[in-house]
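Exercise 7. Given the encoded structure of a 220-residue chain, write a plausible sequence.
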């Protein structure tokens, strides 16, 4: 079977980490004989680590708008930390008829029962998702993040490294969970809210705030 062509949107540090995920998937697939992912390049508006991405043997292809010049079978993933930016690019790419794909690092553990990953979601090394969990479009689960039973993560949610999302928790669209933060069971974080690094969400948080500390409270 032929390789699946794929372009990475975002050419910064996380773009390179997502390329690591692609390489790890290909290593695992080489062992089983499954079709490889062929990373055809990186696209980015603004900052791009051109030298660092190209030393991986993958070309930097220029601005994100260049997606539409690539052959129609080239899928894309969005390796940009901002959920709002992912939403904008996803809405544009869908209007252009472009298809995304999900990426799951082989060391991640996904439960076998009713774990649904939305289109474009990226699950990094050592992340764990248990059972009956729903992830929306272009959700990022970064290194060693855990998501417990029956949790719901909306579209464009960003879960940074070592975050714990407990059972029945709800993260609405575009929530960002800072590194090492936690949400206890059943709590809800409102849309576009950012939870600071190391914070503990023990009460529901409203939409559109930045909350820090233990327990997490909105700044200002
Ligand atoms: C919460 C956060 C978004 C706030 O950023 P910001 O809006 O630029 O806020 P500031 O840095 O101006 O800090 C405002 C106040 O909050 C405090 N603060 C910031 N982050 C905090 C945190 N995580 N925990 C506790 N207090 C924090 C600051 O000390 C400051 O307090 P002060 O006014 O008494 O000095 C940011 O600090 C953070 O934690 N981001 C998560 C980043 C992350 O996880 N990255 C992972 C990449 S892989």
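Solution.
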């Amino acid at each position: 079977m032929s390789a699946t062509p794929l372009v990475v949107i975002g050419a910064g540090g996380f773009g390179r980490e997502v390329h690591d995920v692609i390489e790890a998937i290909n290593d695992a697939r080489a062992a089983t004989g499954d079709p490889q992912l062929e990373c055809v390049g990186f696209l980015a508006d603004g900052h791009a680590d051109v030298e660092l991405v190209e030393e991986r043997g993958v070309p930097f292809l220029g601005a994100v708008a260049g997606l539409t010049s690539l052959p129609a079978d080239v899928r894309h993933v969005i390796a940009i930390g901002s959920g709002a930016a992912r939403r904008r690019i996803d809405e544009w790419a869908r209007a252009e008829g472009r298809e995304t794909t999900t990426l799951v690092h082989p060391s991640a553990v996904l439960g076998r029962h009713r774990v649904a990953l939305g289109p474009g979601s990226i699950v990094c090394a050592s992340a764990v998702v248990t059972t009956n969990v729903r992830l929306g479009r272009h959700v990022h689960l970064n290194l060693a993040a855990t998501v417990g039973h029956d949790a719901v993560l909306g579209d464009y949610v960003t879960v940074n490294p070592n975050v714990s999302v407990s059972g029945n928790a709800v993260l609405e669209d575009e929530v960002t969970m800072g590194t090492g933060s936690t949400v206890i069971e059943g709590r809800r974080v409102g849309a576009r809210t950012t939870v600071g690094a190391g914070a503990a969400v023990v009460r529901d948080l409203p939409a559109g705030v930045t909350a820090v500390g233990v327990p997490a409270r909105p700044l200002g």
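Remark. Residues 85 and 156 are 9 Å apart (CA to CA). Students should compare their own answers with the one above.
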